User: Which sequence fits this backbone?
């Protein structure tokens, strides 16, 4: 029996499946979830506000190698404390990008359409232009019970060595 750290078996399985370049999203209660057999959806919401985003993000981010994080620009107005919290939880060399909420939704929910629009971007161009590159590898969503709008992050998995 695992006795400390992350204990949720579905989240542990998702994180153990993640490879370099895979994407995992942690969302608030309002973010739409995909209906696809290729993307694992873990809905943790029990009641309004529980579990909160901060608790889930702390558990997931501490257990995962991270290359890059994407926030939405709208979060700067609605929940800047969340951005500060997440930045404290990740290694200082982890890159971050702010992008439009609608672009993030399109990238993770309609990757074929979004990728067509950004297919000529290099990784560096995509980050500087605040766009995601290839979203065909979004492997999971973890939806919390958070009721603060625009409290979403997209995690690009890194490597632990």
Assistant:
């Amino acid at each position: 029996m695992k006795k400390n750290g992350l204990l949720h078996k579905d989240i542990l399985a998702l994180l153990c499946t993640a490879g370099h370049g895979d994407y995992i999203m942690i969302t608030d209660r309002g973010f739409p979830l995909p209906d696809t057999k290729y993307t694992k959806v873990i809905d943790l919401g029990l009641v309004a506000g529980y579990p909160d985003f901060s608790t889930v993000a702390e558990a997931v981010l501490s257990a995962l190698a991270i290359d890059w994080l994407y926030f939405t620009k709208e979060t700067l107005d609605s929940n800047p404390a969340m951005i500060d919290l997440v930045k404290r939880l990740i290694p200082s060399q982890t890159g971050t990008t702010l992008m439009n909420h609608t672009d993030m939704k399109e990238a993770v929910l309609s990757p074929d359409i979004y990728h067509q629009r950004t297919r000529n971007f290099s990784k560096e161009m995509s980050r500087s232009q605040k766009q995601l590159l290839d979203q065909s590898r979004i492997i999971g969503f973890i939806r919390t019970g958070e009721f603060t709008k625009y409290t979403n992050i997209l995690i690009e998995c890194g490597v632990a060595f």
